[in-house]
């Protein structure tokens, strides 16, 4: 996909009628070959830019849902893609859907065709489509994929909405503190120096901090920039990703959200593969293909090795250490009763509902912490500024 370019063409079809459209091709020569196969005589071709905004996750999820609806209605996969290509408002998407339909006509599996467009269809899409191809339940897998992506987008929006207010308040508090340190506190300091009386310890500490920020604040800004650059460079290393994921999972509130989102994804795919008759080990392999984080990939690999060694599924999950007692209990019950697919569906639904509920309550959980933090910052600064006033009376009477 990285080598393909988007072209807009104008020409005449085999009936001599003017036509135009968009097409993906690696270069101009292959574009002309593709147009010749469609019996089109090109009159004008030009390369156009690709809009990254068209590849947003919500657009991809909406397309998969529409495709699932067409498959449920009885259309074949190639017919559904052709129909979507003819109705899609974006020329960029129309060209992509035409390429996918052409690949299907050439006998290429749908999942393999999607793998050539990994920046549009992430590994989760490819794994779910592959599962649908193996089980013959492509429409159900597409519906479940669209539902999972919609839930993920809803969770992301709720977290952003919950964090937006605290970030604004903390930013305003920092700006107020900086303004008081640089404009108000020096005036108070000049007044206090006219009196021959020692300043309280808290006031002296705040004034030392203000002097440090005035003289060496640029060092802190430079340090933050260097840390951001180092994080960008180290983020590509699996060891760094594993360490960051461990720290994230240990965070009080955000860790529960991250764990709930991953467990929802894991149990959703496992439930689909189990209900389709795929072995649990192959289901775990499908889950691993959708997981980008090396930490969770390691956990799933450990579970695979223990199951291969003969351990029960619930014990392998327990040894991983990232699954709650409820997960272990339901997996153990499903394994013993032969209804593992039902228990996995219940676990996926449970974690999805709990994660969304936690995201709804995130603002209520953060507001008390926000009040305490802003109160301590502003209160400490105000007390430090006005505390010497109580000593001015003694200094004046003594003078």
Describe this entry's structure for a reader:
With 399 residues, this protein is mainly alpha-helical. Among the domains are: 5-49; 191-399, Type II secretion system (T2SS), domain F (Receptor-associated Protein, Up-down Bundle), CATH 1.20.81. Helices cover 75% and strands 6% of the residues. It has helices at residues 28-37, 57-72, 77-87, 91-105, 110-115, 123-135, 138-193, 201-234, 238-250, 254-275, 280-290, 294-308, 313-320, 325-337, 340-360, 362-386, 389-398, and strands at 5-12, 18-25, 41-48. It has a three-stranded antiparallel β-sheet with strand order 2-1-3. A hairpin with a 5-residue loop joins strand 1 (5-12) and strand 2 (18-25). Helix 10 runs antiparallel to helix 15 (340-360). The chain is extended and about 100 Å long. The termini are far apart. Its main location: membrane. Residues 64-186, 269-388 form the Type II secretion system protein GspF domain. Belongs to the GSP F family.
Which descriptors apply to this entry?
single chain; 399 residues; mainly alpha; Receptor-associated Protein; T2SS_GspF_sf
* CATH homologous superfamily (4th level) name of the domain at 191-399: Type II secretion system (T2SS), domain F
Widest sheet: strand order? 2-1-3
Please give the number of β-strands.
3
Class by alpha and beta content: mainly alpha
The number of helices is 17
Estimated helix fraction = over 70%
Q: Write down the secondary-structure element order.
A: EEHEHHHHHHHHHHHHHHHH
Question: What would CATH call the class of the domain at 191-399?
Answer: Mainly Alpha
Q: Indicate the CATH architecture of the domain at 191-399.
A: Up-down Bundle
Approximately how much beta-strand content do the residues carry?
5-15%
Shape: extended
Question: What is the makeup of the main sheet?
Answer: 3 strands, antiparallel
CATH topology of the domain at 191-399: Receptor-associated Protein
Query: If you average the pLDDT, what whole number results?
Result: 82
Span between termini: 83 Å
């Amino acid at each position: 996909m990285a080598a393909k370019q988007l072209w807009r063409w104008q020409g005449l079809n085999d009936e001599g009628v003017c036509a135009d459209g968009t097409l993906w091709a690696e270069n101009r020569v292959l574009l002309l070959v593709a147009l010749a196969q469609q019996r089109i005589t090109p009159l004008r071709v030009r390369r156009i830019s690709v809009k990254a905004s068209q590849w947003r996750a919500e657009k991809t999820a909406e397309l998969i849902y529409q495709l699932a609806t067409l498959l449920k209605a009885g259309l074949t996969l190639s017919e559904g893609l052709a129909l979507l290509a003819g109705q899609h408002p974006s020329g960029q998407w129309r060209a992509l859907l035409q390429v996918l339909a052409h690949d299907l006509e050439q006998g290429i599996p749908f999942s393999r065709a999607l793998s050539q467009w990994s920046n549009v269809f992430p590994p989760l899409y490819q794994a779910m489509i592959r599962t649908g191809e193996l089980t013959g339940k492509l429409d159900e897998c597409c519906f479940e994929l669209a539902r999972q992506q919609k839930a993920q987008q809803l969770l992301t929006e709720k977290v952003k909405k919950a964090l937006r207010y605290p970030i604004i308040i903390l930013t305003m508090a920092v700006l107020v503190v900086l303004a008081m340190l640089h404009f108000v506190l020096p005036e108070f300091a000049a007044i206090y120096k006219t009196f021959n009386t020692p300043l309280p310890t808290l006031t002296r500490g705040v004034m030392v901090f203000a002097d440090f920020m005035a003289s060496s604040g640029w060092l802190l800004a430079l340090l933050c920039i260097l840390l951001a650059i180092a994080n960008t460079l180290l983020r590509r290393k699996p060891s760094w990703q594993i360490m960051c994921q461990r720290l994230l999972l240990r965070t009080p509130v955000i860790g529960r959200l991250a764990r709930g989102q991953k467990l929802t994804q894991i149990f959703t795919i496992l439930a689909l593969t189990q209900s389709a008759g795929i072995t649990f080990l192959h289901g775990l392999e499908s889950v691993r293909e959708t997981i980008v984080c090396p930490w969770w990939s390691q956990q799933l690999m450990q579970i695979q090795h223990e199951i291969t060694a003969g351990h029960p599924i619930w014990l392998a999950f327990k040894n991983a250490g990232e699954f709650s007692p409820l997960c272990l209990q339901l997996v153990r019950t499903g394994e013993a009763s032969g209804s593992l697919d039902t228990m996995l569906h219940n676990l996926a639904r449970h974690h999805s509902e709990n994660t969304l509920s936690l995201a709804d309550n995130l603002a209520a959980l953060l507001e008390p912490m926000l009040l305490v933090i802003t109160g301590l910052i502003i209160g400490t600064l105000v007390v430090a500024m006005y505390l010497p006033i109580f000593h001015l009376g003694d200094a004046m009477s003594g003078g």
